[in-house]
Amino acid sequence: MVILRNLIKTSDNIIECDYYPEDRKTYGHVSINVETREIIEKDSKREENDEIDMYFNHAALKLLKIGETDAFKNNSFKSEYSVMWY
User: pTM for the complete prediction?
Assistant: First the structure.
């Protein structure tokens, strides 16, 4: 599970958040242009463990999905989301 916090829309097409992997003290930050699907910023306060990349991928995919919603277009999306998989 990864928790997305502090979601903000910085322009018409840019969404960003901090992502917090479960059971970790580290977190990362990601910004994505939802129109071009380009990663603008990827910053991880990572431990020496590449597993955090898995969490980044889930966070980025969720941001892209949020960016496709009417809530994003109307600035009415939540500031926090949880992403779970198994």
Answer: 0.86
